[in-house]
């Protein structure tokens, strides 16, 4: 919790569903710990599929909850 940045990498040549599930679990746990300690969290995505842009826009506009974004396909 003292880190200013956390970088999550993945094997681009062998992207597996397990990698994405682990990444999502890490981000959710970080968010929970930040909320508990009243710290802010920001998440930056390297890239996301074009078909998720509408959901990302809605999330950024606070029209939907993050649980409604399906980042794992």
Number of helices: 2
- Oligomer designation: single chain
Q: Helix amount, in percent?
A: 25-40%
- N-C termini distance: 29 Å
Mean pLDDT: 78
User: Which structural class fits the helix and strand makeup?
Assistant: mainly alpha
**Roughly how many Å is the radius of gyration?**
13 Å
Strand content: under 5%
Note the run of SSEs as H and E: HH
- What does the main sheet amount to? none
Beta strands, count:
0
Low-confidence spans: pLDDT under 50, at least 5 residues?
Answer: none
Which shape, going by the Cα principal axes? globular
What would you note in describing this structure?
- The protein is mainly α.
- About 40% of the residues lie in helices and about 0% in strands.
- It has two helices and no strands.
- It has helices at about 15-35, 55-60.
- About 0% of the residues are buried.
- The model has no long low-confidence stretch (mean pLDDT about 80).
Features:
single chain, 73 residues, globular, mainly alpha
Q: Strands, helices and their partners?
A:
Blueprint: H1 17-36, H2 53-60
């Amino acid at each position: 919790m003292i880190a200013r940045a956390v970088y999550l990498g993945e094997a681009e040549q062998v992207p597996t569903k397990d990698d994405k599930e682990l990444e999502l679990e890490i981000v959710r746990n970080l968010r929970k710990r930040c909320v508990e300690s009243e710290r802010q969290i920001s998440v930056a995505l390297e890239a996301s599929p074009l078909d998720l842009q509408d959901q990302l826009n809605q999330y950024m506009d606070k029209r939907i909850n993050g649980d409604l974004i399906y980042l794992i396909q």
